[in-house]
Amino acid sequence: TTKLLRDPNREMRQAAGDALTQGLEELERVVVFTYNNLVQDKRVGDRLRSHPYPEHSRHLANELDKSTVDLVIDVCRANYGLVARYYRVKREILGLPELTHIDRYAPLFPAKANVPWEQGRDIVLDAFGSFSPTLANRAREFFDQNWIDAESRKGKQGGAFCSYNTPDTHPVVFQTYQNHYDDVMTLAHELGHGAHASLSRAQSYLNFHGTLPLAELASTFGEMLVFEKIVAGGTPEDRLAPYGEKIETTFPTRFRPAIFFAVLQKAHEARREEGELSPERFGELWPESVQEMFGDSISLGEQHRGWWAMVGHFFFAPFYVYAYSFGELLALSLYEMAKQGGSEFEQKYIELLRLGGSRSPQELMATVGVNLDDRAFWEGGVAAIERLVEAFERQWAELGPRPAQV
Questions:
Q1: Separation CA 269–CA 289 (nearest Å)
Q2: Backbone angles phi and psi of 355, in degrees to 5
Q3: Which residues contact 255 (CB under 8 A, 6 or more apart)?
Q4: 25 CB neighbour count, 10 Å cutoff
Q5: What is the pLDDT of residues 78-127, one digit of tens each?
Q6: Which of 259, 235, 265, 220 is nearest to 384 (CA)?
Q7: Exposure of 70 by Cβ count < 10 A (0-12 exposed, 13-18 middle, 19+ buried)?
Q8: pTM higher than 0.70 for the full model?
Q9: CA distance linking residue 282 with residue 244, whole number of Å
Q10: Does 406 score more than 50 pLDDT?
Q11: CA 227 remoteness from chain centre
């Protein structure tokens, strides 16, 4: 059903929203009862383990101070205006008088399947090599040694992931490549992980993996290398779709997790102070946080009040979500540094990947001259997002009004 929320036909998206809402309403009693118990169980566990606040155990696992995490979340919330700017342009492109919760993922342009596997491979390796020969060589191994299963075949699921395995073996990448532009970006993402895993094999098994907030560092960095390669040429029309797709994958991983983090904080605090929470109470906590991000660019309808129940991270991994905002914004900020640092920064970056999880996040980032408590560093990542939005606005302005897409 959620896939149909990306359908180009608005009537189909509305039908999908109706079906989704109906299904969640049928499960509401069970879901709310279960979630109340899960939150209460965490409260008891936190009390027995002397955790002073709900997210404290997650900070310990991630080896991060509360002040550092709060800083990143605050930077994200302070820049929600970028989200509203983008969706105002999207509303104009779609030709709709108003965007609602069923229009958030509506496609802007028809999908194009025109990037064969060999071309996608060359794009990624060329982009990686333009920054670092070492990075390109590590990624090339996956093709030369057949460490990628990318074939689209009957019975194979979509999606993608990189399995690091162990330091004494080698990582592998699984993907279903179907010749779309976003498949190239997925390949870049997973080969970023792959290069990181390959380089960090220099560590022991216990120091092989970094903590969760650094997990997406190399993958997001790799995506940016490829994205800038793709949009370097072509007409405004050629560049508009890639910019739109990039922005729409950026917001869910940088800004939306900050919303989820705020909802989790409110839900856990309310459960501890007010006792068992009703469906109506959850329906208050959820939309006020989501609407804060969209401002006046999207009107979240009444249906949306119950959609909090779809967020699996609320249930199985409390407070896990902020790692996405942290890690992805970290990668963008680091990428901004890389553009100014030349070959010296490239060497530091490769060494950072080789270190794996042998040091804390603060210590690892210090090797490339980064202080995680420096707000200006995080704002550098936001500046990169703002440039994406500005470029998108500029491409659309050059093209001028078009017929509505839906």
A1: 15
A2: -70, -15
A3: 76, 79, 80, 82, 83, 293, 325
A4: 14
A5: 999 999 999 999 999 999 999 999 999 999 877 666 899 999 999 999 99
A6: 220
A7: middle
A8: yes
A9: 32
A10: no
A11: 15
